[in-house]
UniProtKB/TrEMBL annotation:
Taxonomic lineage of the native organism: Bacteria, Bacillati, Actinomycetota, Actinomycetes, Kitasatosporales
RNA polymerase sigma-70 region domain boundaries: 38-102
Family to which this protein belongs: Belongs to the sigma-70 factor family. ECF subfamily.
Region (Disordered): 1-27
Matches recorded under CDD domains: Sigma70_r4
The RNA polymerase sigma factor 70 region 4 type domain, residue ranges: 130-182
Name the record gives this protein: SigE family RNA polymerase sigma factor
Record-linked InterPro entries: RNA_pol_sigma-70-like, RNA_pol_sigma-70_dom, RNA_pol_sigma-E_actinobac, RNA_pol_sigma70_r2, RNA_pol_sigma70_r4_t2, RNA_pol_sigma_r2, RNA_pol_sigma_r3/r4-like, WH-like_DNA-bd_sf
Keywords carried by this UniProt record: DNA-binding, Sigma factor, Transcription, Transcription regulation
Origin species: Streptomyces meridianus
Length: 190
């Protein structure tokens, strides 16, 4: 397989040349300068983070992340004297982000969980529903229609009368007789 060697950088008139890796290191903050900044200012940056956050672990995480981010972007920090300022600003921004995440987490956790019925309660509810359905099937057709429209469809007595084409008095009579029959059927042993 042929080996392809990189083309030497030639300067074409009118086209700016790309900077080499050595040029970018000399133009930005060097790793050595960042290492010295770390040694000299780590505790001060930790103190800054501790004023914004409340626990030591979060402060250490924020300061470490700030150094990692500035290290990744060190070629953009043109003036090495501004490295500390970039680090301070990064610590403040990361602390704000950590606080926002905490607040959001607290908002989500503060919502109460919906009450869940136990399996036993769910089984009893199912048995009651089954018993009610059996009792409803045992009613006269008009009683069942009136009760379903009145209580399950949430209609008024007048709306039930219009829907079934019967008088309002008949709706009341069928409803009261149907409820009485349901009460007897639900109290009877299964």
């Amino acid at each position: 397989m042929p080996v392809i060697a990189p083309m030497p950088a030639t300067r074409t008139p009118g086209i700016p040349s790309q900077r080499s890796a050595d040029d970018s290191m000399t133009a930005g903050t060097t790793v050595d300068h960042l290492t010295e900044t770390y040694r000299a200012h780590y505790r001060a940056l930790l103190g800054l983070a501790s004023l914004l956050l409340d626990d030591t672990a979060s402060c250490e995480d924020v300061v470490q992340e700030a150094f990692i981010r500035v290290h990744s972007a060190r070629s953009r920090v043109r003036d090495p004297e501004k490295t500390l300022a970039y680090l301070r600003q990064t610590v403040v921004n990361l602390s704000r982000s950590a606080l926002r995440r905490r607040i959001l987490g607290l908002k989500l956790l503060s919502k109460p969980m919906p009450d869940m019925a136990s399996a036993e309660e769910g089984a009893y509810d199912q048995l009651e529903r089954d018993q009610l359905i059996r009792a409803m099937r045992g009613l006269q057709r008009r009683q069942r229609e009136v009760l379903v429209l009145r209580y399950f469809a949430d209609m008024t007595e007048a709306q039930v009368a219009d829907t079934l084409g019967i008088s309002l008095g008949s709706v009341k009579a069928y409803g009261s007789r149907g409820i009485a029959a349901l009460r007897v059927a639900m109290e009877a042993p299964a």
